[in-house]
Design goal:
Oligomer: single chain
Order of helices and strands: HHHHEHEHEEHEHHHEHEHEHEHHEEH
Strand content: 15-25%
Radius of gyration: 23 Å
Number of strands: 11
Strand order of the largest sheet: 3-2-1-4-5-7-6
Structural class: alpha/beta
Length: 376
């Protein structure tokens, strides 16, 4: 199924839910309030939203983890009938603003009608895809989403867009479903499970790689094992709870005052090794010991350093198209080193001086000055 077909499938499914032509949940329950309670919403929250705003479509409570403050601007990806938007509007107050984005006309109509009944002047709903947000750059304090990103066929682009619209220092607060282990082929090809927030669940390593590529820092993906009791009811008898689980996903866009080095991201795509650094076993390559020490030094300078081991984290390799292209040429292209998402070294482990030069950091051990200073 190509991307356009997947979006059309999801759009039709959720349009039917909004219109009342399908069960009021992607996740198998006809009682939205019961569903919301199991996701962590309280009675006061359920009572605070207009009738019809809660359709039971979610797997958590993102506005709760977003720590919303008065006056903030919040964007909700896949806002549906507006449930989380209305709760967020109460938290940011009249000085704040909430923008819901949804690609389904029926959901937008329902959300706008709900807003009109309660007179929320600080909430608006816009038509758009979460991969192409109709929002200006650097305009939001918080981007939240509730069990929607798993439905996207282009998740890396979703995170890139979220990063674009966030202000420096802005926060990402997402409740979503993540994969515990690969789904059987029958589940992957099941359109109902795709629309039901199971078939499109990504592994945590993939999500982290996409977020780092977008530029996010302070990334946390916390699985909630207790959600398996909820998830098993989404497709009774199919064992989906053994393959996916709900997770709390948070991250931050670096602030402008954090400095150039703090915003740099160094990613190392290692060949399959016995451990995360290769510094293990009876015959350790001295070059790997030196490289590990160099990476530790870079981290102390404020660089975000991440290593991916092909034997342990193949999803991270698949998530980076540039890395995949190099590996298709030959496995001897590993290790691959990327800075801020761009490959800077192939097939070797660079020295500390080489890495420092590429990152624009002065290495005290080097007699040279910083790059382009004229003394090197």
């Amino acid at each position: 199924m190509n991307e356009n077909d997947q979006r059309a499938l999801v759009r039709d499914r959720y349009g039917a839910i909004a219109a009342g032509a399908a069960a009021q949940s992607c996740c198998g329950t006809p009682k939205p309030d019961d569903m919301a309670r199991r996701m962590g919403y309280g009675e006061a929250e359920l009572a605070a939203v207009p009738d019809g705003a809660n359709l039971g479509l979610g797997c958590g409570n993102p506005q709760a983890i977003g720590a919303l403050q008065p006056g903030e601007v919040v964007i909700d990806l896949g806002s549906g009938a507006g449930f989380d938007c209305f709760l967020a509007a109460a938290q940011v107050g009249p000085g704040g603003r909430v923008i819901g984005i949804d690609m389904t006309h029926e959901m937008l109509a329902k959300a706008r009608a709900n807003a009109a009944t309660v007179g929320h002047a600080n909430v608006e709903f816009r038509l758009g895809e979460i991969e192409h947000l109709p929002v200006a750059d650097n305009s939001a304090d918080v981007v939240m989403s509730n069990c929607v990103i798993n439905l996207s066929p282009a998740k890396a682009q979703v995170f890139a867009e979220a990063f674009r619209v966030l202000k420096p220092g802005g926060r990402l607060a997402v409740s979503d479903v993540v994969g515990l282990k690969p789904l059987p082929a029958a589940m992957v090809s099941d359109a109902g499970l795709l629309c039901g927030c199971v078939g499109g669940a990504a592994r945590p390593a993939e999500l982290e790689a996409w977020m780092r590529q977008a530029g996010f820092v302070d990334i946390r993906i916390e699985e909630t094992p207790e959600s398996r009791e909820l998830i098993k009811d989404w497709a009774p008898g199919q064992g989906v709870e053994d393959h996916v689980v709900s997770a709390v996903i948070t991250a931050r866009k670096p602030g402008t005052s954090e400095g150039v080095a703090a915003m740099k991201k160094l990613e190392v795509y290692d060949p399959a090794m016995c451990c995360s650094t290769g510094v293990c076993g009876p015959e350790v390559d001295p070059a790997l010991v030196t490289f590990a020490a160099d990476l530790k030094w870079l981290a102390e300078q404020g660089v975000s350093v991440t290593r991916y081991n092909l034997g342990q984290e193949p999803q991270a390799f698949v998530a980076n198209p540039e890395v995949v292209r190099e590996m298709e040429i030959g496995m001897d292209r590993l290790p691959i080193i990327a800075i801020d998402g761009h490959i800077v070294s192939i097939g070797i482990y660079p020295t500390r001086a080489q890495l420092a030069a590429k990152l624009g950091i002065k290495d005290p051990a080097s007699p040279c000055c910083t790059p382009k200073s004229g003394c090197c």
